[in-house]
Amino acid sequence: MKKQLILLFFSFVTILNAEGFKLSITANDVKEALSKQENPTWVASENAETIEMFKGKEEPVFGLLDELETSDRGLFPSCIWSSNLPKKIDWRNFNSQNWITPIRKQGNCGACVAFATIAVMEAQYNITTNNPFLSLDLSEQQIFSCGGGSCSYGWYARTALDYIKSYGATDEACFPYISDNSGDQSCSNACSDIDSRLYKISSYSKVCNILSIWWLGNVKKALLDGPVLAMMVVYEDFLYYKSGIYNYTLGKKIGNHAVALIGYDDSEQAFIAKNSWDTSWGEQGFFRISYHDKSGLGKNTYKIRGPINQSLR
């Protein structure tokens, strides 16, 4: 019933404004604002492919639904003061190996939660099996379509994590991603032998974010064991990010987004993250962002544990 009501609302809004969403700032506006800063930390650039995500939409839908409706009771581990942590972690180069799977493209569909969840899960399988060459390519389409997501309004992070824990994710070949161009897909489109091709996680937990003096150290500590699922607010200027350490500069809030947090660097006072907007955006699909950026990245994160798949044990 809840899903039907949300779909009805978005259909009504679309009828009211058929012209679709338009950004209130341009890449040149952001470049001008950055040029006025004494020491700008990032570079902005036009990105037509990213803007294409909004085509035909009343408002941008990155795909993260408001987490306030979901209870986190029982998920908080003990909050501890974390010290003696490495000054830098980057899972693209950890012990001289790349443990991160390639950048994907969610396209014109609010499926960021599925992409961020799968990105973290694939990396965790590589790390847990101590095999950076495992080359897992799991299906965002399957967990999104079968778990209750919709291109029109997105999905909940907790729902995605519950799904891969209870049911699992199949491989990409079993259910290829086509929602970028074709919209929502029926779960019945998955391969007939999906039940024998599933990968699961054993558990997940929310990383402590109770006090400002604790949350950063706890996120860094969680990253010692691998990437984490992270949530952030997106402002208009973020769409024009090209390189450097992003710090909010200009524009209004346009949505909530989920990404894979893959590292940090104290020398830059920044997190390192994997996005799902293809390699044409940002630093070949990745981005760096200030620890204390207005987006709040890092303050709402989930850590997953232990792959479950008989063939990989």
Number of domains: 1
The H-and-E topology, N to C, reads as HHEHEHHHHEHEEEEEE
Low-confidence runs of at least 5 consecutive residues = 5-18
How large is the share of residues in beta strands? Answer: 15-25%
Classification by helices and strands: alpha+beta
What profile does the largest beta sheet have? 9 strands, mixed
Shape category: globular
Range of helix content: 25-40%
Question: What oligomeric assembly is this protein in?
Answer: single chain
How would you briefly describe this protein structure?
Helix content is 25%, strand content 19%. It has helices at residues 2-16, 27-35, 48-51, 112-128, 140-147, 157-166, 179-182, 212-223; strands spanning 42-44, 88-90, 200-206, 228-235, 241-246, 253-265, 270-274, 286-290, 301-308.
